[in-house]
Amino acid sequence: MRGRIILAAIFLAAFILLFRLALLAGEFDAIVTAAQFEAARENHTTLRAFLHRMPKGGDLHTHLSGAIYAERFIAWAVQEDSCVNLENVILAKPQCDRTGTRPISDAMRDQKLYDRLVNALSMRDFLPTPTVPTGHDEFFAVFDRFGAVSGSRLAEMTVDQLRLYDAENVQYVEFMVSSWCPNDREKFVRAIATASDDASKLAALEASGLTECVAAKRNDLAAALDKISAALACDAANTQAGCGVAFRYIVQVYRDNTPDEVFVQTATAAALIRSEPRLVGLNLVGPEDYLMARRDYTRHMEIIRFLAKDVPVALHAGELWLGLVPPADLTFHIRQAVEIAGGRRIGHGVTLAFERDAQGLLAQMRARPAVVEINLTSNDLILGVRGKDHPFPVYVAAGVPVVLSSDDAGVSRIDLTNEYFRAARDYGLGYPELKAIARNSLTYSFLDDTQKRDQLERFERRCAEFERSVASRQSPLSKAVALIKAAVTAP
């Protein structure tokens, strides 16, 4: 009797195993690929190579000017006969006769000057000094140094990045860019200064020429898009470098300004987004710890709620840490970005541990959903937050959708693959988890439903091709072992 029970148990186990094998047969290539990913973990070289080849969907949090490598800015500055102030290493338009300046072209013959420029225009080889004591200060100071070149290079910067993303197996990107009317800034701010409420402010702004400002910026964008198309010269099959990457822009609003200035920028951004399909959302950017950004944070959220009810909103929130600001400032920024401003995506979200009722906030973010754009390298460089201090695994465990993004790849000297590498190395994520995160970057993009469906279908095709390629390189024995192991460990 006992023998029959044992035999029956063996047959049942075999049946269950065969049943699971049959169920998993349709996922054969994905299972083998996941097994190869685990094998690649043993060596960072093979892990990095695997992740570079892997389809990574999109990059939803990248500042276009911050994505450009210093070497590219130097080359453009040489073309423009620009100069550099040797004291603060700020690029400037031709004024090379001034004391303490040199033509940028000198750097092409002077390796020490070239290296100094690269270091100043990025975080490469950063060492604290009395004037720039932290990575936070250096990171944000870099943008002013290349601003004279980046401000007029929207098309060139876009083309540069599309080609890099294409080579990295990324198919979609949303670039954050500035797009408003600085020449009208004072006029617009004066126009709304005496208005008693937000509706009156908006009416005063519209009466002062907001429509004309938006029309002018649309014309500028159209010219840039024509220039991008000409530079890429894409054919029907999109075989040229950069042509395999779809892109849109997110309009930046700079937060370290007075409430009225933030109102003007936000109103301009929202009007642009409504009128131009290539502009798909707005974002509040700039150091969250600066005085006006802290003091007026709640007011900024209210401005966005009023002006951007009908446009997609992604917000930098919780890009802070203990010691950088008073403790009270750590307790509400993420929540207000979600609850007041209606942010669909939250950039960084590092201060989760300090938020009031963090568990309740996580539940709300999961239910809405409010997606978190995880920027592992920039959080390390700017805030010193890494490893177990970072809330990334907490968001994942709570079921809050997350995406991996590069933030400012040129300033940080990284690429998007690096962020997937850090997620795998530091947090133990496997291939299925990373693939799901890559899919999230399309699911939670600001594309319309039809465009999103097309991109998701394209992603699934690319993943199938990638997995088929990985599986085809494995021996029959290793494939069988991977399948049996998956069947045995399946829940």
Could you describe the 3D structure shown?
- It is a single chain.
- The chain has 23 helices and eleven strands.
- The chain is α/β, with parallel strands linked by helices and 491 residues long.
- The chain has two domains: 58-64 and 154-447, Alpha-Beta Barrel (TIM Barrel); 70-150, no CATH class.
- It has an eight-stranded parallel sheet with strand order 1-5-6-7-8-9-10-11.
- Helix 1 packs across helix 23.
- The two termini are 31 Å apart.
Strand arrangement across the biggest beta sheet: 1-5-6-7-8-9-10-11
Fold-level CATH name of the largest domain: TIM Barrel
Give the CA-based shape: globular
Q: Tell me the structural class.
A: alpha/beta
Distance between the termini: 31 Å
Largest sheet features: 8 strands, parallel
Total DSSP helices: 23
Structural domain tally? 2
Instruction: Please count the beta strands (DSSP E, at least 2 residues each).
Output: 11
Question: Which blocks of ≥5 consecutive residues have pLDDT under 50?
Answer: 11-26
CATH class of the largest domain: Alpha Beta
Helical fraction equals 55-70%
Q: Specify the CATH homologous superfamily of the largest domain.
A: Metal-dependent hydrolases
Strand content: 5-15%
Question: What is the correct CATH architecture of the largest domain?
Answer: Alpha-Beta Barrel
Q: What is the residue-averaged pLDDT?
A: 92
